[in-house]
Amino acid sequence: MVLSSFPYRRGRRLRQNKGIRLLVEEMSLRKSDLICPIFLREGSNIIESIPSMPGVNRYSIDKLIPYVETLISSGILAVSLFPLTPTSKKSSNCQEAWNSENLVNTATRKLKKNFPELIVMLDVALDPYNSDGHDGLLLDGKINNDETLVALERQALIQAEAGADILGPSDMMDGRIKKIRTALEANGFSDTLIMSYAAKFASAFYGPFREAVGAQGLLKGDKKTYQIDPPNIEEAIREVGEDINEGADMVMVKPGMPYLDVISEVKRRFKFPTFAYQVSGEYSMLMGAIENNWLDRNSTIIESLTSFKRAGCDGILTYFALDAAKIMEKGG
Ligand code: PBG
User: Fold this and answer.
1) Angle formed at CA 154 by CA 148 and CA 158, multiple of 5 degrees
2) Catalytic residue, candidates 63, 90, 179, 200
3) Residue 118's domain is classified under what CATH number?
4) I need a labelling partner for 203 at 20 to 30 A (CA). Which of 216, 255, 281, 292 fits?
5) Structural domain for 228, as ranges
6) pLDDT of 214-239, one tens digit each?
7) How far does residue 30's CA lie from ligand 1's centre (Å)?
8) Pick from 115, 210, 102: nearest CA to 159
9) How confident is the model at residue 70 (pLDDT cuts 50, 70, 90)?
């Protein structure tokens, strides 16, 4: 590469005004890149705040409809639903996960009826339903991988039947993508997409989410026997490759900002639709600083999301989805 030097080249010529800067912009964030996670709860006429995630609420299903209407009219195409399950419906066999009338399945049917174009994604994992707080079944004090697969298959089929467009297995059990894909094909759901939480790290940044779905106090031990150890990028690459081989349509890296190197490597190696989850703790961290006026709100939100695109993401799950769409609308 021949590089001219000063003063033949002045880097600042390309930055001198907004028009020139836009002309040489290498990529940009779009509203259609964003997937909005939403927390649900039982009851009616309830919008309940989540203390550790300022600005994020739990919605009863009736209140979900107007909220999603706002999202859609702001240009958001996709949502991902998470339930706060009452303790009375949690159990160690997690049967509420494959109740076709559970919160997320009921909400999915209602959303698809009201907004047929809306893309609905559902998490496939047992933790919101598990009295042990884990993503897998705890048998004799240990996570039982293969028994968990049976439960995940049931959960996934019921979710596909409810009308979910995308299933997001977030449990990190071995073999789950193959199990779910095989079941979907065998049951006439050949169009149901799988976005695998393929490189999901055992992270401290999920704390506020666990409060939001009421799993915090219940979790026995930690998730280190199934989620990836934070230093391990090679292991993350192997996990992604495996999930692609087993039938994932899209892959995700999670959390996001602390793992931009992993995102970049996944995209470079596999050339596959790649997503990041800007998780609850990342949201809380940024919002904490924004609320204290330590960071500028709009530019912080857009810069954090743009970093994912630059690293190679096709899309991002983010609690800032609506805020970002509004900022982009104003040309921020
Ligand atoms: C659980 C699940 C988690 C998140 C999404 N699905 C938490 C966990 O693995 O403990 C985290 C999302 C967030 O922190 O925003 N299967």
Assistant:
1) 145
2) 200
3) 3.20.20.70
4) 292
5) 26-329
6) 877 888 899 999 999 999 999 999 99
7) 24
8) 102
9) very high
